[in-house]
Structure formats: structure tokens, C-alpha cells
């Protein structure tokens, strides 16, 4: 009985984190973007600096009418937001935030493969939405989403494989146990490749061609309203949390930090994740959107060779230090 | 076969065995719908269910690594490519009247024959072997990697050469011929590419 309670408790904590962190990232985006653009952002909802703005938005979304276009494929259209959102919840279960087995939802033996595989499923949600909406802008958005996948998936996998080689394990807690501070400079190229590919996966600027609001309205999500639209938005922000958490765990040492014992590990994880999330927001404010073919060129002529070079470097260093 | 394995029977299945059979039935049903539905994008989505069901079967057999690779490659990449192709053709919503083929009896025959061969090989290879699910995972990444690179290196390398050949072939096929070469020296060009 105790085991069952333990598992239920862990899953509950993961669920709370899954619901809370994306909202915090979203609110941070409101405020950071506003201040970078010389505005103040939301100020009224909740009183103190508009902290309850996203809660109010959520209430608004919940009250809106749920519309399915007449020509749409009803079931696929309605299923798509769940397919887009759930993978990120599953990935969050496997990300450790502190040392030991107590600080991770569930230890997955082949953790690196688990997170990359499950994250990849989320793309299906965008494709389903793009096709089922019976809208040419949605279709274009779906096409761009799929084309984008060809660019980011390979460099992302290769960069993650480099870390797995360095640690000699595929398990995320195992990678953190093997971590030493000099891994950061050693794997820095892989980290950059992973983070940039991750941005492309999340369809965040400068890689937001699939939703490009000034070209194709809102891509695959054009026809969505109300809660289903909110679920797609939630998937985007949950994706930011997951990507930043993964980059932290794989490349930045997760709960390792210069000060504080193992007890403060979770603070380090959250801090690094928050800094990366800030970076994601910053990039949105400062970079123009790339074209789809420019992303392909960036990926195949820069990211893939860099990732391969990183794997070669990892292999050489690994052999040298083992002797 | 060890004495402990003798005690297994078909009449007192464990929870994992029941789940295995149920997931297998779902997978089989999804596969049938995939090839019989007239809605072409639905076929691709049912294929996701079938391939995901196989991943769950791997998980139930503790082959965790294989399961995640199955999801990564088939659900995450192959089906996405398939859908990409379907979106490019602007696959219609609803039934496609022409989504059928006169070859379907031949296809059924070939499918049944290849299924029979596969089932025969697997049954003949493993007979009544039972995997001990309670012990250490028999399909963890470490075990899979060790057996792949210690006992099965040669097939592994042969497969990688096969994939490389497919890759080179794809590049050769998709390379656009310059207009002059297409008119005059086509034959030697093609022979050269074939030799590479």
C-alpha cells in the first residue's frame, strides 16, 4: 500500500509542476517582453503587477464556445490538442530535479531515449490539427511543422547521444551522477545544438514558421477556440519547461552547483531551468523569423556537422581519460 | 528449459500475460483498420495506434530500450513523414472513393504468407521459452547493447551498409540531371552513379 501511495504522490507532484511551471513561464514572458519593449505589461489582474493575468485568461478560455468547423474531421480535430499536450506531461515524469531516487517521478532505464521519443509524438498533434481543420492556412501550418521535424530531430538526437556516451548510461539520474564540472566546456557545442534544435521543435521564434501569425494566421491552430486552443498554448509553454529542464539535466549538471549540499539540489535545477526559459523569451523578443528553407540549411550545414564533431570529440576524450 | 519454467500454463495467466494479449488484440485490430479504412489520413493515424501497441508489447516484455526506439523511429519519424506526404497531396477529409486497389487479393495473399513465415520462424526459434519478468530486466539498454555489439556485430554492420546503400541510392535518384547531360551522355552517367 505504501508503494502505491508513494507512486500516486510522485505523480501528483509532477502534475502540479506541470500545471504551475508553464503558467509561471507564460507570466514571465508577459512581463519580460513588456519591459524589453518599453511597456509594463499586465498590471491589474490580482493586484500585484498583474500576477493573476493568466488565471483570468484561463477563466476566459474556459467560458468561450467550443467550435468545430463544419467541414472538419470532427474526432481528429477534437483529439489533436490532447495529443499535443500529453507527451510533455509524460516527459516531465522522467526529469530528475534533485539527487537520489526521491527527486524524480519515475526512474526510466533508457531515459534519454524515452524523453526524445515521447517528445517527438507531440508533433502528431500539430499535424492532426493542421489536416483536420479543413483550412488552407492550417494545412500550410501542418506542412511546415512536418518539414521542420526533418531539420531538428537528427541534430537533437546526436547531441543527446554525445552526453549519453560521455556518461556511459542512458538514464537521466545516471547521467547526473556521472557529471563533473568540466563536462560543461566539454559538451558546450552539443548543448548549443540541442537547445537550438529544441527551439525549432517547440516552434518558438526564431523558428516559429509553422504558426507565423503574419503569414498563415496561426498555422495548424487557426480554427481552434476556447479550451482546446488554450491546451495548444499550454503545450507550447510546457514544452519550454521540458526543453529547458532537459538541457539543464543533460548539459548543465542539473542539481550540481558550486555551493550548497545535495539538499539544495532542486534549487539549482530550477534556477538553471529558469535562466534558460528567460533565454527562450529573450530570443523571441530579439530575433526575426527564419524561413523554412533557412532552417533546413542551418540544420543540415551547421547543426548536424557540429553535433557529429561533438560526438567525435566526446569519443576521443572518453578513450583518452580511460587509459 | 529450466524446471521453474515448467510450471507455466495457459490456464492461469498472470496480469502481465493478460495485458500482453489484450494489447496484442488492440494492435491487431488497429492494423486491420489501417489497411481497410477508406479515409486515408485515418489509416496513418491507426498505424500510430498499431505501432504504439507494439511498443507497449516490448515494454511488457521488459525490452524498454527497444520500446522507446520503436516510438522514436516509427511513431515520431516514419508516421510523421507519411502524414507529411499525405498533407502534400491535400488528402481529402472523409472517404476517398479511389482509395482502393484491384490488387487487394494479391496483397492479402502476400501479407498472409509473410505473416505465416514470421510466425513460423518465431515459434520455431523460441518454442515454449518463458521470459522471467520478475528478475533483472532482460531487455535493458545495457543488456541489449552488450548482446548487439558482442554477439550480433556482423549483422549489425551489414545492416548499416545496407542503409548506406539506400541513402546513396536516394541521393543518386533525387539528383537533378543537367539538361545537356540528360540529352547526350546519359548512359555513362547512370552507370557511373550505379557503381558508386
From TrEMBL, chain A:
Cited InterPro entries: NADH_UbQ_OxRdtase_su1/FPO
Transmembrane segments: 7-26, 79-98, 110-133, 154-176, 182-200, 229-253, 265-286, 298-321
Domain of life (superkingdom): Bacteria
Keyword Transmembrane helix among UniProt keywords: yes
GO biological process terms held by the UniProt record: aerobic respiration
Subunit annotation: NDH-1 is composed of 14 different subunits. Subunits NuoA, H, J, K, L, M, N constitute the membrane sector of the complex.
Function: NDH-1 shuttles electrons from NADH, via FMN and iron-sulfur (Fe-S) centers, to quinones in the respiratory chain. The immediate electron acceptor for the enzyme in this species is believed to be ubiquinone. Couples the redox reaction to proton translocation (for every two electrons transferred, four hydrogen ions are translocated across the cytoplasmic membrane), and thus conserves the redox energy in a proton gradient. This subunit may bind ubiquinone.
Species for this entry: Streptomyces sulfonofaciens
Coiled-coil positions: none
Membrane-topology descriptor: Multi-pass membrane protein
UniProt subcellular location: Cell membrane; Membrane
Family in the record: Belongs to the complex I subunit 1 family.
Keyword set includes Nuclease: no
Keyword annotations: Cell membrane, Membrane, NAD, Quinone, Translocase, Transmembrane, Transmembrane helix, Ubiquinone
Catalytic reaction equation(s): a quinone + NADH + 5 H(+)(in) = a quinol + NAD(+) + 4 H(+)(out)
Name of the protein this chain belongs to: NADH-quinone oxidoreductase subunit H
Enzyme type, top EC level: translocase
GO cellular component: plasma membrane
GO molecular function list: NADH dehydrogenase activity; oxidoreductase activity, acting on NAD(P)H, quinone or similar compound as acceptor; quinone binding
EC number(s) given by UniProt: 7.1.1.-
Automatic annotation (TrEMBL), chain B:
Catalytic activity, EC: 7.1.1.-
Gene3D superfamilies recorded: NADH-ubiquinone/plastoquinone oxidoreductase chain 6, subunit NuoJ
Membrane topology: Multi-pass membrane protein
Keyword terms, alphabetized: Cell membrane, Membrane, NAD, Quinone, Transmembrane, Transmembrane helix
Hydrolase as UniProt keyword: no
Broad EC category: translocase
GO molecular function: NADH dehydrogenase (ubiquinone) activity; quinone binding
Catalysed reaction equations from the record: a quinone + NADH + 5 H(+)(in) = a quinol + NAD(+) + 4 H(+)(out)
Localization, UniProt: Cell membrane
Annotated InterPro entries: NADH_UbQ/plastoQ_OxRdtase_su6, Nuo/plastoQ_OxRdtase_6_NuoJ
Transmembrane regions listed in the UniProt entry: 18-36, 43-61, 67-93, 105-123, 152-173
Keyword Coiled coil: no
One of the record's GO cellular component terms: plasma membrane
PANTHER family: NADH-UBIQUINONE OXIDOREDUCTASE CHAIN 6 (PTHR33269:SF17)
Family: Belongs to the complex I subunit 6 family.
Record function comment: NDH-1 shuttles electrons from NADH, via FMN and iron-sulfur (Fe-S) centers, to quinones in the respiratory chain. Couples the redox reaction to proton translocation (for every two electrons transferred, four hydrogen ions are translocated across the cytoplasmic membrane), and thus conserves the redox energy in a proton gradient.
Protein name: NADH-quinone oxidoreductase subunit J
Amino acid at each position: 500500500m505504501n508503494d502505491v501511495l508513494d507512486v500516486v504522490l510522485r505523480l501528483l507532484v509532477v502534475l502540479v509542476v506541470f500545471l504551475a511551471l508553464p503558467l509561471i513561464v507564460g507570466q514571465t514572458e508577459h512581463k519580460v517582453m513588456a519591459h524589453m519593449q518599453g511597456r509594463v505589461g499586465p498590471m491589474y489582474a490580482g493586484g500585484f503587477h498583474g500576477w493573476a493575468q493568466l488565471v483570468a485568461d484561463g477563466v476566459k478560455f474556459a467560458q468561450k464556445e467550443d467550435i468545430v468547423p463544419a467541414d472538419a474531421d470532427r474526432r481528429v480535430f477534437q483529439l489533436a490538442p490532447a495529443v499535443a499536450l500529453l507527451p510533455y506531461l509524460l516527459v516531465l515524469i522522467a526529469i530528475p530535479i534533485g539527487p537520489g531516487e526521491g527527486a524524480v517521478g519515475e526512474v526510466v532505464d533508457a531515459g534519454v531515449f524515452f524523453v526524445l521519443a515521447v517528445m517527438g509524438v507531440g508533433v502528431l498533434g500539430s499535424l492532426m490539427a493542421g489536416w483536420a481543420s479543413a483550412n488552407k492556412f492550417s494545412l500550410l501550418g501542418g506542412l511546415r511543422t512536418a518539414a521542420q521535424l526533418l531539420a531538428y530531430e537528427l541534430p537533437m538526437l546526436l547531441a543527446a547521444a554525445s552526453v549519453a556516451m560521455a556518461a556511459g548510461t542512458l538514464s537521466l539520474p545516471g547521467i547526473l551522477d556521472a557529471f563533473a564540472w568540466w563536462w560543461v566546456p566539454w559538451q558546450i557545442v552539443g548543448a548549443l545544438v540541442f537547445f537550438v534544435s529544441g527551439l525549432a521543435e517547440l516552434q518558438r521564434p526564431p523558428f516559429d514558421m509553422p504558426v507565423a501569425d503574419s503569414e498563415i494566421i496561426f498555422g495548424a491552430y487557426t480554427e481552434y477556440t476556447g479550451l482546446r486552443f488554450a491546451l495548444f498554448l499550454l503545450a507550447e509553454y510546457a514544452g519550454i519547461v521540458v526543453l529547458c529542464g532537459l538541457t539543464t539535466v543533460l548539459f548543465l549538471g542539473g542539481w550540481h552547483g558550486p555551493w550548497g549540499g545535495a539538499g539544495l539540489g532542486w534549487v539549482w535545477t530550477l534556477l538553471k531551468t529558469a535562466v534558460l526559459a528567460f533565454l527562450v523569451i529573450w530570443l523571441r523578443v530579439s530575433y526575426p523569423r527564419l524561413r523554412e528553407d533557412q532552417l533546413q540549411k542551418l540544420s543540415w550545414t551547421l547543426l548536424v556537422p557540429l553535433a557529429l564533431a561533438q560526438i567525435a570529440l566526446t569519443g576521443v576524450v572518453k578513450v583518452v581519460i580511460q587509459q | 528449459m529450466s524446471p521453474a519454467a515448467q510450471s507455466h500454463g495457459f490456464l492461469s495467466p498472470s496480469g502481465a500475460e493478460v495485458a500482453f494479449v489484450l494489447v496484442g488484440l488492440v494492435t491487431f485490430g488497429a492494423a486491420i483498420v489501417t489497411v481497410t479504412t477508406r479515409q486515408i489520413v485515418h489509416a496513418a493515424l491507426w498505424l500510430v495506434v498499431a505501432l504504439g501497441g507494439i511498443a507497449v508489447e516490448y515494454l511488457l516484455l521488459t525490452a524498454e530500450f527497444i520500446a522507446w526506439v520503436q516510438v522514436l523511429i516509427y511513431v515520431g519519424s516514419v508516421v510523421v513523414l507519411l502524414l507529411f506526404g499525405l498533407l502534400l497531396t491535400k488528402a481529402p477529409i472523409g472517404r476517398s472513393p479511389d482509395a482502393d486497389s484491384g490488387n487487394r487479393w494479391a496483397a492479402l495473399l502476400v501479407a498472409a504468407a509473410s505473416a505465416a513465415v514470421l510466425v513460423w520462424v518465431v515459434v520455431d526459434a523460441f518454442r515454449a521459452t518463458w521470459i522471467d519478468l520478475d528478475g533483472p530486466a532482460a531487455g535493458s539498454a545495457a543488456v541489449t547493447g552488450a548482446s548487439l555489439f558482442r554477439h550480433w556485430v556482423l549483422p549489425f554492420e551489414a545492416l548499416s551498409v545496407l542503409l548506406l546503400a539506400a541513402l546513396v541510392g536516394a541521393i543518386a535518384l533525387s539528383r537533378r540531371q543537367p539538361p545537356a547531360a540528360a540529352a547526350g551522355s546519359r548512359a555513362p552517367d547512370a552507370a557511373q552513379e550505379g557503381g558508386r
